[in-house]
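Run folding on both entries below.
>entry_1
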Amino acid sequence: MANRPWTKLPTKRNSGLAFQPSIFIACFVIFFGAIVGRLFWLQVLEGTRYRQLSAQNRIRLIARSPIRGRLLDRRGRILATNKLIYNLYLEPRLVNKERWPLMRDELSELLKISRDKLDSRFNKGVTDDLYRITLAVNLDTEQILHFREQQSNFIGIQVDIDVLRSYPHKSLASHLLGYTQLITKDEYKLLSSRGYKIRDRIGRKGLEAAFEEHLRGEWGGQMLEVDAMGEVQRDLGEKPAQAGQDLVITIDLELQKAAEKALSGKNAGAIVALDPRTGAVLAMVSRPTFDPNFFSKFFAPQKEYDRLFFSKSKPLFNRALNAYDPGSTWKPVTAIAGMETKKFPSDVRLKTTSCITYGGHCFPDHNRVGFGNIGYEDALRFSSNTFFYQVGVGVGSRAHYEAAINLGFDTPTGIELGYEEAKGLVGHEDWAEKGRGWGEPGLTPWIPEDMASASIGQAVVQVTPLQLARAYAVFANGGYLVTPHLVDGEIDWTTSPYRKKVDISPSTLNTIRRGLRKVVEAGTGRAVALPDLPPIAGKTGTAEDSTGGSDHAWFVCFAPYASGEIVVVAFAQNTPGGGSVHALPMAQEVLKAWWRIRDN
């Protein structure tokens, strides 16, 4: 057998190809599992959130602010209204600080607004953490058109309509109308649950604040579908904003203008005109004043705010509702105390002198000689101090205080602006025994000098012009204490509890009425009478300022004498010279205007 060469059989090589299907399958499973897991995460675990984000990117909600109700005078003439303006807004969540410089430069060139101004407003808005930053206000037509043409280049910035509160008569009636301002962040946190938005304006003072719910209305909105470029595709629906309700107030515009003009020559003071039959306030003026349109501004330099809020003249302060020494206008209160206690009946006659000593101090009569032996009517006519010292000290502080509270003093009047109204002060021995509001009980006793001063409306007596008008309405309307008000609404103000009979005898009331008439016929107030005016009754007053300033001037009157249709209080703060010199002419101008428009 032939030898066959040895042939070595090839060995089987391990190339790894046998494992490739397993690796491929494993990778496929892992990859597919990751996709499934991610889908599960996106659609199940985070599905709700991403659907909301998707909707937010696709659907835009545009809030529509309500139109605030107007303030109208008793004849329907506009005192406060609204106007529409176009503003430029930025949403900080859509524009970060890195994108801002480029957008700022483009906006500045497009709208001709300085870069510094845009920067300042952007930075302040970011610092304040605002939801929406106002970059520019009251854009003109050209600016609006330019922006609309380039709007797609400014994602996160838009031009929108805003409603601005407007006061066409500027400072007229500013203290009683009040003003509105943008809501603060803290207020928004408290009021958002009641429908307020961060862009809302809220009443700050006066009727704007007192009737906020009546005036403000309700927000509406529009739902729009947009594409990735922010272009509107279709309107998905709209809820119209609900306008606020108009508010008709008791003020007469023409009478208010006359009162403002009458007071314009004084540094400070107030005028109140009141219907004594119902308590309706016909005019209310305080000076110095301010323009409420200032607070409608979106931007105002801090120095302008400081000038208004920190001025020594206090222009925001409503002097018609603040308390001052009333001087001789207070004497009818002391007369009531004397007659109603029967210690000094209506027919009493007292000897007046140059001065009467109480507690070591001689309290003088204003003419330094007295007026002889007189009764109540002439004591009011001549405004005799020594007559009323005797009555006041004779009846004592408690009877004096009772007469005062029966006329509505030492308590708020009930007017809608009560949150701004001073209570006033009528001092008495129990009040003094408790510390007078500033001292320790038992260490500030009532002394004879207190009672003498209180008798003529000095030192321990302070009243507001509105309180004084309310008290004199009692003498004008036959003995009823009315509730001063600025809105009639659906209330019958001649019914209880708004109008109540004062516990005062007819003889007391008639004695005071006759005395007040004599003041105008032949006394300190005779200059107010004019041939073309009806019969008037009233009282002058010159009061020392217990805070240390110069004298106040007062005049209070009502007309016609027989029917009592209007009460006017004129007050010139720290204006020495006497009520007949400074306050009486102001009241006369108001009476002339009232008589002219009375039957119109």
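>entry_2
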Amino acid sequence: MRFIKNISILLFVLTTSMVTAQVKFVAKASKQKLGINERLRIDFEMNKDGDNFNPPSFSNFTVVGGPNQSVSNSWINGVRTYKKTYSYFLAPKKRGNFTIKQASITIDGETYKTLPLKIQVTAAVDKPKDPNDANYIASENIHLVAEVSKTNPYLNEAITVVYKLYVSPTIAVDNWNEIDTPRYNDFWSQNINTQGQKVQNGTYNGKDYRFLILRKAVLYPQKTGKLNIEPLSLDIALRVPSNRRDIFGSLLMTRVNKTVSAGNKTINVKPLPEVGKPVDFAGAVGDFKLDVIASKTVLDASESFQIKVGVKGNGNLKLFKLPKISLPSSLEVYEPEHKEQVKTNLSGMRGSISDSYTVVPQYKGKYPIPSISFSYFDLKTETYKRLSSEEIVIDVLSGPTNNANETSNGNIVNNAKQRVVLNNDQFAFIKTKTNFISTKATYFFKTNLFWSLLLLPFLAIPLAIVIRKKKASRDADVYGNRIRKADKLAKKYLSNAKKSLGKKEAFYIALEKALHNYLKARLHIETNDLSKDRINNLLKEKQVDEGTIKDFIAIVENCELARYTPIDIVTMQEDYDKAAKTISLIDKQAR
């Protein structure tokens, strides 16, 4: 009986030792349910040290802290207890039910995995207003604010958005990074440089704060109705005072990660009034002046002069077309050279745009250039205004004389009368006598055709030699082949855009897609990498000229802009020709 008792005790001790030696590797969550504005702590605990710890992918969360590592050893009744923990602090990205997948670690050559954890993220919850809670202190003392200059602008009227970060003097900010950058859909936008901004003192909700301007943007709405300005969101690492003090009596600071957002802003864009809208209105909104200047008004035939049509002032200068000039047909006119000298600041676009036409008269005489009209919507008076230039007379002193009288609108009228010459046989009868010639049977042998076919193979030999030499010469012409290849490549990529000429939306979508596909094939990049700065850098690396790069980026901007502005088929053809020329130039120049 005593032997059996001793055996039982021995078995119990062995079983206890085996249980004690069992490896444990578990995942624990601080809570199973939380609000989207709360934080979650995940601990991965093990009772024996290991190697190759691999955490799961926290795809639906942002890691705002960790991994933090802690180790504890304790001895109780001679038994050693070991615990090692990896801790992560997570912020949810959206609401929903999510799974924290398995983590793994290698202990004594064996791989161990945790069980998945189910987490539910709900709508934002009211946080307890505990004056000693670090997160509450942070939320009360740091604010990100978006200040919009005007919430009910007209279509194409400039508004500004300024993002300011207000921080209480009682807390300290270590660093921050943007986790959500606003995309200004349905706006023409331009960011204003804010580098070198200094911290300023100000008030927010009646309290003293320090603030820093993080971002400025000028927006021109391209649609009417309610438009949304997306928020700017930051993840900020900061230190807040706690209720504990050091040995010298100073308050100890607690580190906190805080996500702040400027919130969505909605503006209501008013359409431009239909009452009094001119027929030739092209979408100009602001305050402008019109200049039409001829470089010379007295010259000889075959000399050239320039006519400059320019608009200057403050408004949406890059978002409308200048009026065209109308010239008599005896004046040969070339495509205009477009120039922009525009600066954008918080008041919007300011500067000038112009089209310069080169004109060459063909004949002696005086040629009036009719007045040019330009209309725009004045924001100060909220009415349409029309500007008109003076008529310009070009006096061509010497040169050939045009016998046809030319009217001011370019139509040619010939007042000289010509005598009608009658033909004596205009009423001649149909001839009844014929000149038929009888034919005799002939044979193909020894005819001219027979001898020609017989000699043709011998004549083809020198012709084949000449063709072969020309082909070899053409194959050796590397530069010429590149030109021909570039032109062929441009036509290939732009074929769909050419089919859509006249259909504004379809044409510019096809044109933009063609440009993207060309760059993907030529530069070996993906479409989502095609930012304007990246295009500029990649083409520079390929040794493409600055002018060609600017033309390509300008075409891409035209594709984005054209969907919101009235465009005629002539402009579409111009953009198509410019795109074909630019693609061809890039292919010739790229190394």
